[in-house]
Every structure is written in structure tokens, then in C-alpha cells.
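Intended use. Records like the one below are meant for learning the mapping from a protein sequence to its folded structure. Do not use them to infer anything beyond what is encoded.
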Amino acid sequence: MRYFQQVRRLRWALVFVLVIGISLIGQIQGAVPSVRAEVLSLGLTLPESVMPPSGGGGGQLYANGQPIKEGNTIQAAPGQEVHITADCEATVITFALFIAAIGDQVSALGLLLMVLLFQLLGDPCLGGSTAALDIQAQQAIVAAPVVLGLQVREGAGRFKILNSMFAYQIETDNAIVAAAAQGDFTVGYIPATGTTVIAAHSGPVTVKATNGSSIILQSGQQVEVTRSGLGKVGPIGSAPGPRPTPPPSGGSSGLERFDANNNNLLDDPEFLDVIDAWIAGEVSGEEFFEALDIWISQEPISAAGLTSEAPHRDSVILTTDMSHQAVTFSAQDLAATSMRVEIFALNGQRVVTQETSGSRLRWNLTTSDGQLAANGVYLYVATVRGLHGKLFQSPAKKLVILR
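Structure written out for the chain above:
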């Protein structure tokens, strides 16, 4: 099995949904108790809108080296893998979502359909480029027609089941976490300590440690898994371990306690500490998103608590108008003299910064070095200057690009 080292893409903890272009990392390897050991059979009927273009650079899909044609059926027994390649990553994304959409046609309930989208962010879909998708029938610890699996090597993610046809099975270095039927849970992994923290916002959530012990969390419960096995179950926010110092009183945001090197910025390791504290319930959602804004913009931490100097957050109502060639950002209900939009990749790298006069800004999907931005998920922050010079800044928001 191959490992894909795009781990830093999971550094920020937000609700994870099956969105076009999201990067799912790695694959679950360990054998776990089978729900039903039958052959997974997918009857794929690919409509014209899903099939890649025939000509002008190709775009043919291949499964294990064989061309995929409309009406083909792909079969895989537990442990077997189907490797799909295509000339364009957008084709693979579309194909993956189509497979997910036909989950009710899966004949072997309970088997794990591993949909692994990798390296979909950061590589432009240029002529001649290829992308790949691995689909693996695997044994599962939850029963559902389609189970989406991925591996978290660092950071945290919140996983929400939006459809009863689907389930998630998430693996860290010392735990496997699974949920179905409208489950909602957070998984965070801290490699330095080998600790996995699982919080069940809506249960049940099954947790299986690598030493064989397992437990089912109910709504509102949390557990830590260390190298020695399962810890004690408690309410969300009760995880043991060192606690950050209480926020200082008055005049600041309280995020200074995470500034280990005292440079008045949130560096990457410090932001990961914020994520860990958020998982443990030691940081509120409002404070977490404030930290996210500061980390992305790299503005001084001290400015976050000074309302007279810092931009007014959450004061900009933004709309986006997306086309294949550009995105237009518009500030609503605000008389603006200028507008600046900063766009970031999920690894924190700044993609582009653009400014314009007025309240509308058009981005032509090119990066600061003139390259076409890759398909994928980005973050953006808009700063608007009002008539009297006052600055208004939006919170960080997601932007999905798919051509």
C-alpha cells in the first residue's frame, strides 16, 4: 500500500464533508472484524456528463490498466483494490462523487468502499497530467452501504454523516474510529505524544485501539487513546493533560497563551496547539476561528483584542459569483472605498492577494506567480475599507474551485 504525505492539509479543524476537491489522505490497512464478507460489486452506468471528453487531449478513464466504458461493472473482494487513473484530476473527482452517489446500488452491505482522493490540491489540471483514485473493498467495523475511509497523521478534523447511506472510518496511528447513521464526531491526533482524542458530538461512535480494546461512545462523550490503549471516557472537554493558562483579563484575545516564542504571531506549531485545545474543549469555537483568522493573515495576536485598531470582524457580508474563468467577490450592505481579498491553500500558503477600489473584486483564478490555480478547496479573507477609513474584515471562508 502507498502512503501519501499530504498530512499538513489536515492542520485546521473544520467540519469535513464530501466536497469536490477535498484531499483525503492515506488509507486504512488493519484488518478488523467483518460485518459481511461478500464480494463488493458496483454496477457503474456512467452518463455522458460524467465521462471525460473524447478528444482534444484525451481523458480516458482506466481501471487497473483497462479502459472504463459506459455500463461497465467493477468488482472487488475484501482486500482487493481497484486503481483508477485519468488524464485530468477533475475527471477523477467527478468519478469519485458519482460512485458515492450510487451507494444504494452496492450489493454487499457493510463492506468498506475506500474512496481515496489524493494529491488533488496543489497540482494544476494541465494537459497531459494524470491523477489517480484507489477504491478498495475492505472489512469494516460499521455497517453501511458505503464507508469512506481516510488516515489522519496530524491535526484534527470533524466528520459529519449527512446521509444514512454513508459512514466514516478514520484511522490514526493508534486508533480506528467509525460512525454511521447521522454520526458527528471529531478526531484529533497529536504525533508528538501519540495521542488520539475522539469526541462524539452525535453518537454512537465506535473506537477501536490498536491493542484490540474497543468502546462505543454516545453523544457528548469523549475518550483519549494513547500508545497503551483506551483511556477513561468522560464528557466532551474533560480530556486529561496539561491545560493552557487562563486567558489574561482585559484588553486581549487570550490567544497570547499559545504564543510560545513570544513573537506576537501564531506560528504553525502554535496554531496546532490551538487545534488540540479546541478538541479538548479548552478553546471556544469563537476563539478557534479568531485564531484561524490570525494564523492565516499573520496579523499580530495583540491586535485581535484591540477593537479600536483591528478590523471589525464578522462585519462584512460577502457573496461570491463563481464561473470557470473567475470568481467575483462582492461586499454587501457596506459603502466601500476599497477591497482586498487574500486567498490561501489549506496548508497555509498564500496563493494570491488582490486589491481594488469599490466593493467588487474579480479574481481570474491565477496565483501570484501567474499560474492557474489548481482545482481544490481554498480559504479566503476579505478586508473592506469604509467611507471613513474604518476597516471591516470577514472571517476565513472556504472557496471550492472546479473546472
